[in-house]
Amino acid sequence: MNNDVVVIGAGPAGMAAAIQASSLGLKALVLDEQPAPGGQRFRAIEQRYRRLRAAGKGLPASEQKGLDLIRRFRESDTRFVDQASVWDISPGGRQISYLHHGRSFTIPANAVVAAPGAYERPVPLEGWHLPGVMSAGAAQTMLKMSGHPVKGRIVLLGCGPLLLLTARQLSNAGANVVGLLQTTGPADFLRATPYLPAALRSATLLKQGLQLLTQTPLVPKVFSLTQASIIGADHVEGVNYRSRGGSGFIECDAVLLHFGVIPNTQLSRLAGVAHDWNEQQECWQPVVDAWQETSAENLMVAGDGGGILGDEAAEMSGRLSILRIAHRLGRISDQSLSKLAAPLQRGLKRLAAARALIDTIFHTPETMLIPSGDTVVCRCEEVTAAEIAAANASGASGLRHLKVQTRVGMGPCRAQMCSMAAMAMITPGIRCGQRPPPPATVRAPIRPLTIGQLAEADVEI
Amino acid sequence: MRPPHDLPEPPHQVSFRFGDEEIEAWEGETVATALLASGVMITGVRAMSGRSRGPYCLIGVCHECLVEIDGLANQRACITTVRQNMKVCRQTRLRPLTGEDETREQ
């Protein structure tokens, strides 16, 4: 075995973990699906830097820290495999299989830091399967990678800091934003006021939030949005909406949806570790201790994949994971463990306190929580809300039941896009403390894999 | 420690085929972002319903952008980095069971 630790994901958490490992003399192998490190937060940042520099410009300050992190990561004594898609992790995490340039490799792992990150909460709306509908994060990714904003007339719809940030970035890039439809309204801010004092401890975060709320682009805006359906034959042609202030229709060519982000739990669920329902963030997440360690020894989950706290917290949790592993291996003393960990654990507490405010303001409205009628819930298998409701009415009470009866969640995305909505449909009291049923079991392969790739796999035991 | 990592030159442009079209992209960019930037919205058609689909999440989660790349089916366009002269095709129907079979009736 050549590695002390295998890190899955090269976003802020994974990179910070690798840098910390290297500084303590641990050998880390880092696997990431993307062609370059950065994760979604700092996607393609090296490339953007090169493009901007060639044009005589620089990166904005908020992005410069990402470039610095990537530089430290690249300069660290870490083995980095890009374009590596992990398709299996054994129970407890001691064996990892990944695809790399069409070939499968299975490797042993002494310790694992999984840093799978987050993805945008899928909220099925009528017509959301049409070409031209993307997540707001996708529009951001496109802008980062290609340098081009989404084409045509754009409507942004939903809630959350990223929605507002994307609106601003698209406008600055010269995109034609024709509507910003927010579910957020005065009631959300009122409900969130009790959480303000705790959030004051994270002044920078609060300042950034205020800037986002007040510096939105000059485009038509709707607040307190309660319902929306996307219209079009073969692609997006417009959005019908209803809000507390009335209803309307906007003609457009693209709709960008965003309803906050949720942890990507595919890997941690596949590894069979304990998960819990986070009521405040309305999502499942792995149960981790103060060292980011899951219920399986030496299997850590760091960053947003362990609960949404943002990139600053991700770096802290990535480093904490490695400190624990290094301590077990006898590379650091009890004393230096507590000395190095204390500021990180304090920082995580501070950032978690600010989170309640954000989560309460940007809340998916009750009216959009449960899809109905012809709305496609499972995009892969094209299962509608009506079909799921019918299966539920005839006795399908858990996600496995629903799956067997309707094929919901059986397509290539492995239920990542539909399971939250399907779960809400069979848990009507989800906002009143009713605990949702556990998500359906995740099974390998979690990425498209051919029989040939499986047969020719390179297995190291 | 490794030598300092520097990123001096600007990235190059590359081009690839999408069906009959020639698509320009930045080196290091993914197939999906290059297609979207060129105005391609539809990357596939569902065999059963005939519904058109396009990229949705661009981070490898939703699998909506599955395309055929250099003969290999079901590749996520949003995860695959462009290469000069790569051949990308829309997936519009069920695949034949063997190389010689005709495409199955839908």
Automatic annotation (TrEMBL), chain A:
* The keyword Oxidoreductase belongs to this UniProt entry's keyword annotation: yes
Stretches assigned to the BFD-like [2Fe-2S]-binding domain? 376-426
The FAD/NAD(P)-binding domain is annotated at: 4-304
The organism sits in which domain of life?
Bacteria
For the keyword Phosphoprotein, the answer is: no
Keyword terms of this UniProt record:
Oxidoreductase
Report the GO molecular function annotations: oxidoreductase activity
Q: Which InterPro entries match?
A: BFD-like_2Fe2S-bd_dom, BFD-like_2Fe2S-bd_dom_sf, FAD/NAD-bd_sf, FAD/NAD-binding_dom, Metab_Enz_Cyan_OpOx_G3PDH, Opine_Oxase_asu/HCN_bsu
Its name, as the record gives it, is (2Fe-2S)-binding protein
Q: Which organism is it from?
A: Phyllobacterium phragmitis
Automatic annotation (TrEMBL), chain B:
| Entry keyword annotation includes Membrane | no
Keywords associated with the record:
Oxidoreductase
Keyword match Ribosomal protein: no
State the Gene Ontology terms under molecular function. iron-sulfur cluster binding; oxidoreductase activity
Top-level lineage group: Bacteria
**Which InterPro entries does this chain map to?**
2Fe-2S-bd_N (IPR042204), 2Fe-2S_ferredoxin-like_sf (IPR036010)
Q: By its UniProt entry, which Pfam families does this protein fall under?
A: Fer2_4
- Could you tell me what this protein is called? Sarcosine oxidase
Origin species, per record, is: Phyllobacterium phragmitis
